[in-house]
Design a protein that fits this description.
Layout: H1 5-12, E1 18-23, E2 33-36, E3 39-48, H2 56-61, H3 67-75, E4 81-91, H4 94-98, H5 108-120, H6 126-135, H7 141-148, H8 152-164, E5 168-170, E6 175-177, H9 179-187
Antiparallel strand pairs: 1-4, 2-3, 3-4, 5-6
Helix pairs in contact: 7-8
Length: about 190
């Protein structure tokens, strides 16, 4: 579930607590969490709804200036059932703090290296990708994919694994190496 920057800012302040999405099948579930640029959201409820029953309060709680704007936004979404997702900000994204940790313990480098070897499997990509991201802030998935011979969508999924380890971070467009990723590369 993606959010625009102004909505993310309103989520961070607690002013936005609802989202409306059309899906063939929901991509979140009640009781689950979702990491966003605003932090980790706790999904309180997800219900199929009819757009006819939406209110001005629904619009305000979802970051829309009016019910008409909310309905226009919903109309512009892909086909599927309409879902009302209620959530609250549960806390900071733990990856944000992780990517600033540059002091590695005695086994941390080796543990991290082993995780990357596991990610690589039969086709090594992790170190090459980290080095390319480190070489140019804002490098895009398309540029990376062309450089290392992966399909763009598959590579984006792979880069998420590096992000989980705190080694990279996503920008508005492209990626950059984190301080943790830079320290790791310097140490190997």
């Amino acid at each position: 579930m993606l959010f625009k920057n102004d909505v993310l800012a309103a989520i961070a302040t607690g002013n936005v607590t609802l989202a409306f999405r059309r899906w063939q099948k929901p991509s979140v579930r009640a009781g689950g969490t979702l990491r966003t640029a605003a932090g980790v959201l706790s999904i309180d409820a997800i219900d199929a709804v009819d757009a006819v029953g939406l209110t001005n309060e629904d619009a305000a709680c979802s970051g829309h200036s009016s019910l008409d704007v909310l309905l226009a936004d919903i109309k512009g979404q892909r086909a599927g059932a309409l879902y009302r997702i209620a959530f609250h900000l549960a806390g900071d994204d733990p990856r944000v703090a992780l990517r600033d940790i540059t002091d590695f313990g005695p086994n941390d480098h080796e543990d991290l290296r082993q995780r990357l070897i596991t990610f690589d499997g039969e086709s090594p990509w992790t170190l090459q990708t980290l080095r390319l991201i480190a070489s140019r802030e804002g490098i895009t998935a398309g540029e990376l994919a062309a450089s290392i011979g992966f399909e763009k969508a598959a590579l984006k999924q792979k880069i998420r694994k590096l992000k989980e380890l705190g080694l990279t971070e996503s920008l508005q467009s492209g990626y950059r190496i984190s301080p943790r990723g830079r320290a790791f590369l310097a140490a190997i």
